[in-house]
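Lecture notes, unit on protein representations.

Consider one protein chain, 242 amino acids long.
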Amino acid sequence: MARGVAVERVLAGQSCKTVGEAHGIPERSILMHWLNMLAVDGEAGTRVCASECCYAVADIYGIESDSFAFNELQKRAVMGRAGERVRNGESCLQVAQDHGICMQYEAMDMLEMIAVNSCAGERVRNGESCRLVAREHGISALFMAMCELENIAVKTVAGARVRQGELCYLVAWDHGISHCHNAMHNLEMVAVETFGAERVKNGEWCTLVALSLGIALDSGTVKVLAALEMASAGAEKRPRLQ
């Protein structure tokens, strides 16, 4: 009976914390989590989606800022007005601050990926530096979105320049590819697949080939060239069947 009344009160817009105290529901219990999620799926979620600050709304509805429910509340904000603002070109950092979205939460990753999949990614495809674009769109160099931005450059304009014979490290510098090891490796592999592999198979030393293509000698890409060199040398030593 008490559980049903508690649910009705939360659905009516009352604070989960107030309802929990009135009905003796422990703060970290499964039932309190359920009440929090009812609020998130109801009025609280609607309000942050419309543009209200997550922290202010969480306080009104008695949702703790270190809870799973608060994380879900921030996602509702991203799915609403916050995400729309980023899609329209506003800085993720400014939008996150306005909407109460914390840098350490999953919602921030979602917000940054909206920028990458819209205006920020488009600017990189058009040849702008990932560093500049990330800075202007409030994308952190420490998180997944930066790697995605750099990989867009590799798959488009930066990769095209390397295929035309330009040095990897110069292209990487021009396009701001520096934070994501995977993106740099992928750029260097474009050079390997376009020029390097064939040259090594034809007998050139892998280190000299790497240097001529602007590939760092301490990178994993050189190991790929070295493996090709060893395979080619081994093939030459194998006896040929008459």
